[in-house]
Amino acid sequence: MSQNEQPSRHGFLRLVGGSVQESWSRLRRRCASAAEPPRSGAGGVEPPAGAGATSLWLMRTTVHEEPGALAELCTALARGRIDIVSLQTFPLGPRPADSSTAADTPSPSGGRLDADAGHLPEQSIDEFVLRAPREVEAAELHRLIEAAGGRHTWAERADEDSLVDIPTRVLQLATRTALDTAELPLVLRQLLGRCTIRSVPRVSPSGRRTDPEVLDVPPEGRWEGTVLRLRDPAGGVLVIERPQLPFAPSEFARARALVELDRQLGAGKRVPHSPDSVTLSGGPSVTVRRADTRDVDAALALHGRCSRETLSKRYHGPVADADSFLTHLLSPRFGRSLAVETAPGEFAALGHLLWDGEETEVALLVEDAWQHRGLGGELLRRLVEMALEDGAGSVYAVTQASNTAMVAAMRGLGLPLDYQIEEGTLVVTAQLSGAAPAVRALSCAPSVSD
């Protein structure tokens, strides 16, 4: 058994990618036979822009694994006064081809590629973090790279997080997953960039069983270009979609290793309660802590103490169905939950931060006897802080149009709000861009249940 075929309990070690020696050999081979790019004043190549405003870009392009291919790309970028901040490569291997395809396929070194035993030469995806003059747009990057032999080029603006090297970033994400099972969908999104992650349970909150064909995913998962399907350690299937950019094989391997790490450590069993004592204005002290599916009984008891009006404002449907949603709402696979505990195992309020594709929902429930004491506002502030830490751009709350209390709680955040109303249902969205100082400055303010 080779080192790369170790038992699955060591799968997380694959997160940092393939062999460093192999990657280095590939880069040396691809650069080796290319002539040294001309310097400034010799051939018209200017150095990368030094002074002046710049922007970061994340760019991917597919190239042939030919000597000199990488140097062609680097030279093209230098001509555009674009600096390469970092580079990683995703080997794709050879691709099938017939003689007509090969005859039409250009080589970075000139001429045409010949089909050898029915395959074109190996290809790889090169991913660059670039620093370019502010005026450079995506269309110019496409033009430069395609002219230098790149194909299927994709580029979007990046931020400073892109400067963290891949092994460091992946190990940080693995640590977060190991400490808290609720982090898995979030770290997958950070690992794979702008994508949509859906957790498809075997049974929906309403009791409907999922189509067996949807759940039919092999143990090793399935890679379908722009879609990854992985068995969810908590049950069901994780579906990851990125229509704007196909996943590379190494990205699939890293995602699979993170999911395997979660399975090995016990999905659903690593939710730190992190209790925090809070003294309400003019009232007793209570404990705010994380909640999960182990707290279903306490949540059911909370429902039992709430009036029908309070439950109907929270669940926007038949009150009799409210209990059936709790296992789903408390599952760390679908979001995070906070509880206000007045005594061991007795909840006065519940708050949920729920992941809805690329969006994030907040929801609150406060027992009637504990309303107007600031519990809703305290939970909402903490949930929004969590959303900020997770990189969410906004959070939204769905409530009844007549529920002025929930609107007041959202307004109490002091953030820009958008309102949409349709057939008595109100959706209030809080924009989180630049909101961290305002949210963290909030104190416990009066609030009521939504």
Automatic annotation (TrEMBL):
What residue stretches are annotated with the N-acetyltransferase domain? Answer: 286-443
Record's superkingdom? Bacteria
Q: Which PROSITE patterns match?
A: GNAT
| Pfam families, A to Z | Acetyltransf_1
Bias (Polar residues) ranges: 98-108
Query: InterPro entries annotated for this entry?
Result: Acyl_CoA_acyltransferase, GNAT_dom
Renumbered to this chain, region (Disordered) spans: 93-118
Alphabetized SUPFAM superfamilies for the sequence: Acyl-CoA N-acyltransferases (Nat)
Name the record gives this protein: N-acetyltransferase domain-containing protein
Q: What is the lineage of its organism?
A: Bacteria, Bacillati, Actinomycetota, Actinomycetes, Kitasatosporales
